[in-house]
Amino acid sequence: MGKASGGKYVMRFDPSGLSQAFDRMRKEADKKGKSLMEQQGKFFLNTVKALAKPLEPTPDEIYRSAKARGFKIRRKKGYSVKKELQRRIRAIGTFRRGWKPARIEQSRNWIRVLIGNIVGYSGEVENKWKTGDKGADVVGGRFKQRLHKLAKQVTSIF
């Protein structure tokens, strides 16, 4: 603590507690045989995939939408309506399975996990539903809670 102007005291905060908590999280992950960034990257990827699952149409929904249009659906030349419906049903889950890790960056006090979707129409779906943003919010919030809990334990001796 130091004395500031006007007789008031100022306490300078040393962020070593958060750094120690981050280091402790890294050591715990290493004990499990994975690095902290791999662990958090996998958690992020699985969370985004889980958020994408409810967006998938069911076979019944695909059939109902085709029936509502009088079975006049866009399809490849030479494909029957039945064959196109089968293809669409087989394609269920493509968006969810298309999420892959793009790049993982790490410094001493931060981790950045970048993921991407290799599916061609993923941009349209992502713009509509924002699954990546929602996943980042869930994972980031949970990670920060764990980090602050550990920081509280580390700094409780003060």
Textual characterization of the structure:
By secondary structure, the chain is of the alpha+beta class. It has a domain at 35-56 and 93-155. Helix content is 57%, strand content 12%. It contains 7 helices and 4 strands, in the order ββαααααββαα. It has a two-stranded antiparallel sheet with strand order 1-2. α1 crosses α7 and α2 packs antiparallel against α7 (131-155). The longest helix is centred in the last third of the chain and has 25 residues, at 131-155. The chain starts with a strand and ends with a helix.
C-alpha termini separation = 14 Å
Instruction: Indicate the low-confidence ranges by residue numbers.
Output: none
Helix content: 55-70%
Mean residue pLDDT = 84
Topology as a string of helices (H) and strands (E): EEHHHHHEEHH
Number of helices: 7
In one word, what is the shape?
elongated
Helices and strands: which structural class?
alpha+beta
Q: How is the biggest beta sheet arranged?
A: 2 strands, antiparallel
**Tally of strands:** 4
Q: What topology, given as strand order, has the largest sheet?
A: 1-2
Strand content: 5-15%
Overall radius of gyration: 24 Å
Jot down its keywords:
alpha+beta, elongated, 7 helices, single chain
Short synopsis of the structure:
The chain has 158 residues and is an alpha+beta fold. It has helices spanning 16-31, 36-52, 59-68, 81-90, 94-97, 122-129, 131-155; strands spanning 2-3, 9-10, 99-106, 111-117. The chain has seven helices and four strands; from the N terminus they run E-E-H-H-H-H-H-E-E-H-H.
